[in-house]
Automatic annotation (TrEMBL):
Its main location: membrane. This is Synaptotagmin 3. GO terms for cellular component: exocytic vesicle; plasma membrane; transport vesicle membrane. Residues 34-160, 171-304 form the C2 domain. Belongs to the synaptotagmin family. Gene3D superfamilies: C2 domain (2.60.40.150).
């Protein structure tokens, strides 16, 4: 069976024969009089280039004959769209439940200068949504020669075969926050600024994200703080400060795990992705922590790539911090080993 996703054929050249796993078909807008191959009627997508507004407008209408990824004989498909080579900005359709022939009818816009179009490509990735594990990649379509398409009264429906793609690294999103430590006050402030391109956890194609920060020592969670919940978004902005009291003599003994969570009013809240900062952290997490310690009283802002939650910790059964008698004023604490 041939599987199809409605995606544009920009150049109309004959393609090398490949084994397809679906098709994506957009109705393309070409200059008037440009005729081409394609099925008539029943358009599945549109790509429109607005030259004056420097906008590339992509409309995905539907996909056909997708492979079944779930035990029930269906899939829960959605589509991610990038304008390569930029993978920072992406769009994503809603998830459609239990279907191999989803109808999307969704429009997306990319702002791009006309003189850059020759070096850009549209990349469509079709996924099967899974609430509790990594989403399965069904296949991909890449569309180039974007300059061939501009606004016009002529249109042409085109089907593009979805070809099997290699599994991508888990794309969970990025988190931007700053760290500021006041040694004399023994206070660390993590200001959660924003997140981008978060993984969709809900069938709407969005999530309800909030950020939870946990103070960790010896694998135990001593304290936790969290931000407000932002509804129906993959790009939330917070600008919220999470404050922890950590005496200067103990700052090297702790780390902070910062997890982006998806709020669920009925079931359990799920971890979208996390990162860790501290002297024992790896790579960017250790570098961010070191920069904070080297610049006391100054907020140090970094972006962090979210990774899958692989932590194993338990809440502290009792106080781990106790006043250090005679060595600090009230409110300063020392870790007891």
């Amino acid at each position: 069976m041939t599987h199809q996703l409605s995606s544009p054929d920009f150049h109309g050249e004959e393609k090398e024969q490949v084994t397809s796993i679906g098709q994506i078909k957009p109705e393309l807008y070409r200059p008037k009089g440009d005729q081409g191959e394609g099925k008539q009627g029943d358009n599945c997508g549109k790509i429109i280039l607005h030259r004056n507004n420097l906008l590339l407008v992509v409309k995905i209408l539907k996909a056909l004959d997708l492979p079944a990824k779930d035990a029930n004989g269906f899939s829960d498909p959605y589509v991610k769209i990038y304008l390569l080579p930029d993978r920072k900005k992406k769009f994503q359709t809603k998830v459609h439940r239990k279907t191999l022939n989803p109808v999307f009818n969704e429009t997306f816009q990319f702002g791009v200068p006309l003189n850059e179009l020759h070096s850009r490509k549209l990349h469509f990735s079709v996924y099967d949504f899974d609430r509790f594990s990594r989403h399965d990649l069904i296949g991909q379509v890449v569309v180039d020669n974007l300059l061939d398409f501009s606004e016009g009264s002529g249109d042409k429906p085109v089907w593009r075969d979805i070809v099997e793609g290699t599994a991508e690294k888990a794309d969970l999103g990025e988190l931007n926050f700053s760290l500021c430590y006041l040694p004399t006050a023994g206070r660390l402030t993590a200001t959660i600024i924003k997140a981008t391109n978060l993984k969709a956890m809900d069938l709407t194609g969005f999530s309800d994200p909030y950020v939870k920060a946990s103070l960790i020592c010896d694998g135990r969670r001593l304290k936790k703080r969290k931000t407000s919940i932002k509804k129906n978004t993959l790009n939330p902005t917070y600008n919220e400060a999470l404050v922890f009291d950590i005496p200067n003599e103990n700052i090297e003994s702790v780390s902070i795990i910062i997890a982006v969570m998806d709020y669920d009013c009925i079931g359990h809240n799920e971890v979208i992705g996390m990162c860790r900062v501290g002297s024992e952290a790896e790579g960017p997490g250790r570098e961010h922590w070191a920069a904070m310690l080297a610049n006391p009283r100054k907020p140090i802002e970094h972006w962090h790539q979210l990774v899958e939650d692989k932590t194993s910790m338990e809440d502290s059964p009792g106080p781990f911090w106790t006043p250090s008698p005679g060595s600090a004023p009230s409110g300063f604490w020392t870790y007891l080993t």
